[in-house]
TrEMBL record:
Record domain AB hydrolase-1: where: 54-277
Gene3D superfamilies: alpha/beta hydrolase
Organism: Pseudonocardia alni
Full protein name: Pimeloyl-ACP methyl ester carboxylesterase
GO molecular function: catalytic activity
Amino acid sequence: MTSAFVSDTALNRFHRAYHAALSHLPDPDAEHDVATRYGTVRVYRFGHGPGRPLVLLPGNGATTALWLPNIPVWSQHRTVLAVEPLGDAGPSTQDRPIRTADDQAAWLADTLDGLEPGPAHLVGVSYGAWLAANLAVHDPDRLASLTLIEPAQVVSRFPVTFLPVALGASRAAPEWLRRRALRWIIGGGSLDTPTGHVSTAVAAGHRTRLPPPGLLSDDQLRGLTTPTLLLIGAESRTHDALRTAERARALLPDVRVEVVPGVGHSLSGQRADLVNARVLDFTASCQE
């Protein structure tokens, strides 16, 4: 089975929130629907900057709306390709089950093949960071660099306190509990924002049929020779920030690690100024 919305009502609610959120972005320079072995992947292109493009992978249920604070800045300096991940909510269309980490790497590799020749700078948040790191494990030659922002299940596991809250954010929970759980996960703040409206619509009505992300092993992390930037919120509830930073420094061969004080899992939005600058500086330092 493939991922889908549970009803037309849920789908329509999502569409309204999604298009309202994307209206806050600059008009994309192009929209690509890339055929892969597992379905068709929607990618938005912004800007025409020099060098290799930034390829953006959002967190689960966040869609391109996650990047509202980032794309307007990055697209002034580089070409930006915002991917709507296959199997998640959004305009990408899954037509074949995705069962393994190999399958996840395959559809993303097919997507890159359909967009640009040569390696790209992958930038992922949360589950999107796992997708990027998973591709780096399977096919490192496709990456010029790897930016992991608040990664999920890449360097460290979810803490035991996270799992019951994640259940509270699921479709089966009542609306009030779902919203409370989502606020806890992102580290507080309002869900009454364009991005928040998208996330709540996805949590309320989308049935995701994807394999859970498996934690990368010590050997897999040691084998990630791709230049890597790791940005962690010090107050994150999805991992222990200091232990995550310590393991990354111990195992990743070529990594810059920064633990950002006073912010949690919504680092890319709450500290967009810092994240925007760090990503541009890091990718500029990598060989083009």
